[in-house]
User: Fold this.
Amino acid sequence: FKIVKDYWISVDIVSTSETDVTFTIDNNIKDSILDSMSNDIKNKIGIKQGEEDDNTFVKYTRERALIFCIWQNLKDKLWSLAKATRVLAKWNINIKISSQWLGQRAMIFWVKKSKMKKAARLLHKKFIEKTK
Assistant:
């Protein structure tokens, strides 16, 4: 993340797994800066241009949006993340990353931008309108 900091880019969310490190940043950053930063990251981890992993190991997309769901009584709802992902799957909204955190009072989803409004409405209907 030092390389990202060197470009004066603020990281919003970090997600890790056995094989990936994913992070979100401001969508207004120019492609030329993202390309340069991506190349610096590849160089730092030893991937040379033209190698097999060159185009797949470090990449970025502008096609995704984050949805944050934060509410006080979420921790009282057992399996909230599972329920939320089922609601989105039912409407063919694919989730790239999902997480439940902050003492189980928050959930985050990374979805296609084109599905963001629909996903937010579905989650609101499932968890907010249903509890009123």
